[in-house]
Design a protein that fits this description.
The protein is mainly beta. Among the domains are: about 10-45 and about 50-115, no CATH class; about 205-420, no CATH class; about 585-715, Beta Barrel (Lipocalin). The chain has 7 helices and 45 strands. It has an 8-stranded antiparallel barrel. Strands 16, 17, 20, 21, 22 and 23 form a 6-stranded antiparallel sheet that branches. Strands 24, 25, 26, 27, 28 and 32 form a 6-stranded mixed sheet that branches. It starts with 7 loop residues before the first helix and ends in a 10-residue tail after the last strand.
Amino acid sequence: MNQKSRAFALLIGGALALSAFAACAPDSSDGTTEQDAASDVRICYDNLGGGYLDDSVTKASVAGVTVVAGYNAAGTRVDDASSIATYADGVFTAVSAGTVVYRTADGELGTVEVVPAYVTDPGYQYSGGNVDFDESGGEEQLGHTHDPSLIEVQGSDGRPVYYIFSTGWNNRSESVTTGGMTYGNAIHVSYDGMKTWMYLGRTFDWETRDEDFVDTKAGRFLYSEGHTAEDQGFPSGGNGYSASDAGWWAPDIVAKPDGSGYWLYTCVVDGSEYANGRLEGLQLDGESRLYSRACILLYESETLDAGSFKPVMDENGEQYAFVQCSIPRTGESHDVNAIDPQIIFDEDGNMYMAYGSFGSGNYLLELDPATGLRKDGKTQWVTHDQIREYIEGDGGIQDLYAETSDAIGWKHEYYGTNISKQNMEAPVIARHDNVTTMDENGTVLEENKTYFYSMHSYDGLADNYQMWGGRSESVWGIYRTTTDQGIVYNVGPGNGANQGNKYMGAFTWHNKSQGNTELDIILPGHNDLFTTNSGVSVAAYITRQSGNDGNFVTQLHQYYLNSYGQIVINPNRYGGEIDRAVTAEELFAYTDGGKFKMVVSLNQQDTDSGKRAVNTSRDVVLTQDPDDGNSGSIYDGSQASGTPIGTWKMYGDGYIVFRFETTLKGSNGGDSGETVYYGVVRPAWLGDQNRSGFTITCLGQTGSNTRSMSMFMNNYSTMTGSGIVGE
């Protein structure tokens, strides 16, 4: 397998720097999708024969190339590539599901992926058994994967291969454990376009663990530097735990800009919090309080193979340190937590790392794209005393935090620029170029803009995890809501001071099909935002088995930009569907009586004490205006009766706007604060119904609101046949 990524031109050196959505935009004179050679293209064919598709999604112009091979939907090579897509006069035309590989005159390989216009069964239904939540073996789910980071490479046959690097909390795989403890981050791979995944192993080699970590400055900082030697009633000589307890969390995998391999940014923390009912931590001479330590480290490899990553060393043979923390275990502190690194490149190729968790919020540092290290050169190891001076000394973090009140954007010499504050973690920043925005009347508002999108996990992992964020014209922020009235700021579940865009919280679909094992969305968060070479954008995040406090599983959901250039997330798991505009005529043709399920997000806790989703969908009905099929009314309930609660209008490339008479209420009667939502209509695999259909996903944009709530709809689909599973 060719592990060298060829995506730098599109992705600007990393898996997270996102391009514009252009995969299915008609931009050539003949109405086909025009692509540069050696890019990856997605088109679709009409597997239901409804006649609603046009050339913009069924054809792609790729001039001057030679067809190399064709592969069917199962990945098997076929004798005749034209059975997947024909190629004539520089235009590929979709025929059936699969992939055509082509070669340019320069010898580069590109692909044309053909998918059904109406997604067929992706084959990833949960069994409800332990195999869904296990790393041992080649299961097709992402059980026990936490904090995902995605990357795409080109396989030896020219087709894309996808990897997820993650925390991976599972101790069952004997090949990567000793004494029941894991070493490094988990690696999963997908060969079928991110629908199913296989576990590969861990990032680091256990055989060289001592020399690569335990006996290095990282190991000494976490487990020995500064702590008392006397027995304090804990195991392991007084510090509560040893290097075997190290936790490897939240990696970010990045292709080196020069194409020579990969950088792995990861964080290591000093062990569990409690042992035998007692709080653990490093205890310093002369102090009674305990400290928790963590640091962000850099590793590299020429490949993405398990066990291949080694620490990046300085001239003295010691590993570089990016950021360190030493945080008191007890007492409230606006501290800095050195975890959760994530890399982003701006449009000029400048490189940055976002990181942080709770305390004083999240931060941004500029890196050197030639070395992957901090640009300011502050990569030397610091002591506990230095760390506490950075936090508690004059002009330190706590002074800056107090002086700025609710403001963000201030800078600390060591920790960097503050980009969000209060109760949140795991910042991810994605870039989109060439964003054009428009209103529902077709008036173009902006053209060819570059925007940066932040997404953070609000509240506690075990309490009320949610995905919030904002948008900015600069990677440095300030990140604001859809109305530009609020910043990314959170002080707890349901607090009236919370600000930002709430992209997703816990919810469940009512009226699931009989025997349906699809998981509810429980405590979603710690996500990655990733766009493939072919233009598929996904949010990969963790959720949980319904009603269970454990059993993390990673899910991938496609996301889009609405007409105002704001992120809206498909509430259904990614099933391989194409990002294409859906017309009102097509939507209602496959919807039972105009009936939909609707989820309304609220500024509240979305789970109960048993970690079950309390935000449940309810029925609504959309009707079409007899004089204008692209607009109409919306009714609460399963029938179009009584007084409508609002109106809807479709426009442009599958965009939709809702205007409600009063602020829209959630399933429990809670008030969203929203009367206006902008979104998109897209094909989706409806896990709640186990069939293909359509989803509507929106984000509120109401007046001067300081927070914007998401809203989702799934149609009651009437689709069956052609591999589409009915009830």
